[in-house]
Design a protein that fits this description.
The protein is mainly β. It has helices at 30-35, 174-185, 399-404, 441-447, and strands at 7-11, 21-29, 38-52, 70-72, 77-90, 102-110, 121-122, 133-146, 161-166, 194-203, 212-221, 226-227, 231-241, 245-246, 268-279, 282-292, 315-318, 322-324, 332-346, 353-354, 358-368, 377-383, 385-386, 418-420.
Length: 450
């Protein structure tokens, strides 16, 4: 490969919305293009939904359900969400200005507005998920098509020149943008209505003995959606009761059970992602823990790196053990302790969305561990996560919003994928279940990038 490339790509935008125009400029170095025997330069805009359920198989399968033409690979279901191609230059069609060897080639390709494209997404893959996979990927490919191998100069071990860029795509969210502005104006102090979830259970240290009581409560703003890249306040209240005891001293005895969490590392707030897949009459559901939130969790006290939305302004109120007679026998009662955590977290993930083949939901999971078997408490709160981006020229997109969106670098699946599209007479239409179709060379060139 030469030190300098014949093609360079400059994209004008970093985040895209349905109906947006993907525009930019390809800079063609004509001297290097001649040396590389480039005959044509074109761009491809591509978006696919790919689903694999279960182990890899090579048997033929029926066509999937969904809009658009179908990408048929050996053992998975894929749907083309968008596909556009534009030729920018062919040999002899244009030349650089006098005294220069650089030719700028501008392009503009449109993302579809209807049906609304799915947001960029990639579910966990690998043996831990049993080979299950789901990905919504968009990318732009610049292809410099070179002279074929049968030409006078045979290009051994050299293919077309390619530049591939993943494109983060999200849906517009004007309501979420208003919520984001409201949360930002609050300065981290929420004065609106709170939503609350709580759990409690009886716990004991071993197999025998009296039961203590542990309860946990989490409060977050009672809003319809939770935008990414936004500080969202939370309040956690943990209360513990000892087993029934007789009051012998005015102060609490040592080592009461269950012990209340008193440090950020002694409880955790996790973001959970649940994915439901449906393809070829098969269904599968799995969950993944995306990360810890709000500077809570085992790593909080030593290293906050990797925690989403680390909060330097966390407030912890550790109460003293208090005697509470409560509904106990005469002369007996329980020692009670209350601990409160207040802070904020920031969501960094693909927004919640639903499709006939894939459904993605999110939950907030408060995990409070206690010693013993089966004593831990989990409080789960459903979250409707949205982009919080209005997607208008006036509002724009902030750097924090760009960083909050996962950029799936492996934007182009390896291997050859054939695109079946209906022929002029209607044959080969994958939605009609017929065999046939033609291979799109341009698409094939793009998706064969490894």
């Amino acid at each position: 490969m030469p030190d300098r490339e014949a093609l360079t790509l400059d994209l004008h935008t970093r985040v895209y919305f349905p109906g947006d125009t993907v525009s930019g400029e390809v800079l063609l170095d004509l001297s290097l293009a001649q040396r590389d025997h480039i005959q044509e330069v074109f761009v491809i805009l591509m978006g696919t939904l790919r689903i694999q359920i279960g182990p890899r198989r090579t048997a033929a399968r029926p066509p999937p359900v969904g809009p658009g033409p179908t990408v048929v690979a050996r053992d998975d279901q894929s749907i083309v969400l968008c596909h556009a191609r534009s030729s920018l230059w062919t040999i002899g069609s244009a030349y650089p200005p006098p005294g220069s060897h650089l030719l700028p080639l501008r392009f503009a390709l449109a993302l579809p507005a209807r049906p609304e494209p799915l947001p960029s997404f990639a579910a966990p893959t690998g043996a831990s998920q049993g080979g299950y996979e789901c990905a919504v990927r968009y990318w732009l490919a610049v292809i410099g098509r070179r002279r074929h191998a049968g030409a006078k100069v045979k290009l051994l071990f050299e293919g077309d020149r390619k530049i591939v860029r993943p494109l983060p795509v999200v849906r517009r969210d004007r309501e979420g943008a208003e919520i984001k502005a409201l949360l930002g104006a609050s300065g981290g102090i929420w004065e609106g209505e709170w939503g609350m979830r709580s759990e409690s259970k009886k716990v004991r240290r071993g197999l025998w003995g009296g039961h203590g009581i542990a309860s946990a409560e989490i409060r977050i703003p009672n809003i319809s959606s939770f935008p990414i890249a936004t500080r969202i306040p939370y309040a956690i209240h943990v209360r513990t009761y000892s087993k029934p005891l007789t009051l012998r001293t005015p102060s609490a005895p040592p080592a009461l059970f269950p012990p209340a969490p008193t440090a950020p590392s002694s409880l955790a707030l996790y973001l959970i992602q649940r994915v439901n897949l449906s393809a070829y009459g098969m269904r599968h559901e799995f969950e993944d823990r995306l990360g810890a939130l709000g500077a809570l969790g085992p790593a909080a006290s030593t290293d906050a790196e990797g925690h989403q939305g680390d909060d330097d302004d966390m407030r912890i109120d550790v109460g003293e053990w208090t005697w509470d007679e409560g509904p106990c026998e005469r002369g007996r009662g329980r020692w009670r302790r209350d601990v409160r955590f207040e802070g904020a977290f920031v969501l960094k993930c693909t927004p919640t969305f639903s499709h006939v083949n894939v459904d993605v939901k999110h939950f907030l999971d408060l995990h409070v561990p206690f010693p013993g078997v089966g004593n831990s408490l989990d409080v789960r709160v459903p979250l409707n996560i949205t982009s919080g981006m209005a997607g208008t020229p006036r509002t724009g997109v902030t750097a924090q919003e760009v960083e909050a969106l996962p950029l799936y670098e492996a934007a182009v699946p390896p291997g050859q994928v054939q695109v079946q599209t209906p022929l002029a007479d209607g044959s080969g239409d994958p939605l009609r279940g017929r065999r046939g179709g033609r291979t799109e060379d341009a698409v094939q060139s793009a998706v064969q990038v490894t």
